Amino acid sequence: MLIRYLLPVAALCCLTTLPSLASAQIAVGLEPYDEALVAARFRSFGNTGGGEIYVGVGDLGASANRQEINRTWTDGDFPFTFTLDRVADELRVDVDGQTLTFPNFSAEIASKTSGNYTYDDLNILQIDVAQRDAGSTVQIIGLTQNGQLLGDFIPDANGFFTWTSQGGCVVLPDEGTLSGVLRIAGPFGNSQELSRVQLTAGVRESDGLDCATAPAPPADDPTAISDGSSTSAQSVPLLSQFHLIWLVLITALLIGRAR
């Protein structure tokens, strides 16, 4: 008879525990990594004549590594997406309806970086926001990773915000997408890089993981990081196993007394 009462409690254990993401390492601040593989950059908010949007592989400071497009920035909010499309083998950035693509990115990773890594080795995501023009505003609002909310990215009093997530391998589906709103307001000076935003995915070997054999993310984990890296939106156990064991014992004790 006791089993009949305990089965619903045992079922509660399964229903209330989501995939644990405790192994991901999430930090506000710069974390060193071995190599950047893909990136997008928003820059030149003062419309100084250089390209305002970059997308490419490796070091975006090298012109051969990127595609760029001109845009006339104004004060305001600009929805954007950064997409890694494995089917089309291209990187895409869309800013408020203006699209820039970087084709054949898998081959470009091999030729424009050290050649030691491929798309499948991605295991670190870094988001940099620099707001260094006096009196200016540069922010990312409502950033999502494959639909899961990561939050707002607002520079500190020194004009910087760097957010790094690493641990496990970045297991992206055919389309891995970062989406959000770029919020900017001047004044901006003549520097093209003093204030900017960069989204970077790369490789850090020091976590000791073998990405070729790393487990895939759980089916109900929508994040692009295999063990789920996000800030406010990451999945966590709703009830710990410890508490559930006590719940079962207390339930059994109450049923015993009731009889």
Structural description of this entry:
This protein is an alpha+beta fold. Helices cover 15% and strands 35% of the residues. The protein has three helices and 13 strands. The protein has helices spanning 2-15, 105-112, 241-258, and strands at 25-28, 35-42, 53-57, 66-69, 76-85, 90-95, 98-103, 124-130, 137-145, 148-153, 160-166, 175-185, 196-203. The strands form two sheets. The chain has a seven-stranded antiparallel sheet. The chain has a six-stranded antiparallel sheet with strand order 7-6-5-12-9-10. The protein is globular, with a radius of gyration of 22 Å. It starts with a helix and ends with a helix.
Average pLDDT, rounded to a whole number, is 73
Strand order of the largest sheet: 1-11-8-13-2-3-4
Q: Point out poorly predicted stretches.
A: 2-25, 208-247
Question: Quick one: biggest sheet?
Answer: 7 strands, antiparallel
Radius of gyration: 22 Å
Count the strands?
A: 13
**Shape designation:** globular
Short description:
With 259 residues, the chain is of the alpha+beta class.
Write the layout of secondary structure elements.
Blueprint: H1 2-15, E1 25-28, E2 35-42, E3 53-57, E4 66-69, E5 76-85, E6 90-95, E7 98-103, H2 105-112, E8 124-130, E9 137-145, E10 148-153, E11 160-166, E12 175-185, E13 196-203, H3 241-258
Antiparallel strand pairs: 1-11, 2-3, 2-13, 3-4, 5-6, 5-12, 6-7, 8-11, 8-13, 9-10, 9-12
